[in-house]
């Protein structure tokens, strides 16, 4: 009956869509930018009662930055962002795995239906397409830089909180170049506006990256303790515990300033600065930036287990009032 319904719905899909409706399409191979958007829009068409897609911005090269909302009538929100760094394909594919599971199998998880899931699976489409065609290890976006022959900004260093605290000049040709100013990039600006718009009723934000097997909580720019960061730490611990229990992978929990290095202008710190209850930076996998397509589902399952457990825990411990 399910597949018969899908076949009937397919007859109403515009010819511009390639009809990627089988969830295995998104979890068994790496999709292109065009295929990813087709997948999202097809889901919105097939499941219009609970799924919508919104364009929140446009890149320097004219590609759409899209957010998919699942259970769009729910008041409490979970926001996931993936692929800010172009070469981190497993973050994108894991986000698509989460989307597929929520849409196709959401009825199996009633505890998750109380949340509006807002997911940006490809936050850096220009950079991602560049890694597919030219340079697999490219990390930045592809915006032309003023007064320079270089291209690209590290999007996870371009958010508007403590961006200017980094006293060391970063060359525009560097992989970690944070841009000429905070929010100079269309991608970070669009995500920053989304976080601001939904800050009051977002219970969890997770910025999904690879690799390293870490979950960071604020602050990243300093070793000082962030106010009220205990909630984020407690939620992160739930995530690493379930990954260890189910997949025997060991993750560390802490701040990037303590475990890695100080990071300025990150989406994590910006999230905490606008008052979102739980803000996390999730470094998936420990196998490097390149993973086999046969491992997409495995890492998607790890991300799914951690993200959903953390969403449930965040909902339990945050103190947010949602008016009827």
TrEMBL record:
The active site is at residue 283. Its cofactor is Zn(2+). InterPro entries: Peptidase_M14 (IPR000834). Pfam families: Peptidase_M14 (PF00246). SMART domains: Zn_pept (SM00631). GO terms for biological process: proteolysis. GO terms for cellular component: extracellular space. Keywords: Carboxypeptidase, Hydrolase, Metal-binding, Metalloprotease, Protease, Signal, Zinc. GO terms for molecular function: metallocarboxypeptidase activity; zinc ion binding. The keyword Cytoplasm does not apply. Residues 29-314 form the Peptidase M14 domain. PANTHER family: FI02848P-RELATED (PTHR11705:SF140), PROTEASE FAMILY M14 CARBOXYPEPTIDASE A,B (PTHR11705). Belongs to the peptidase M14 family. This is Peptidase M14 domain-containing protein. It comes from Anopheles gambiae.
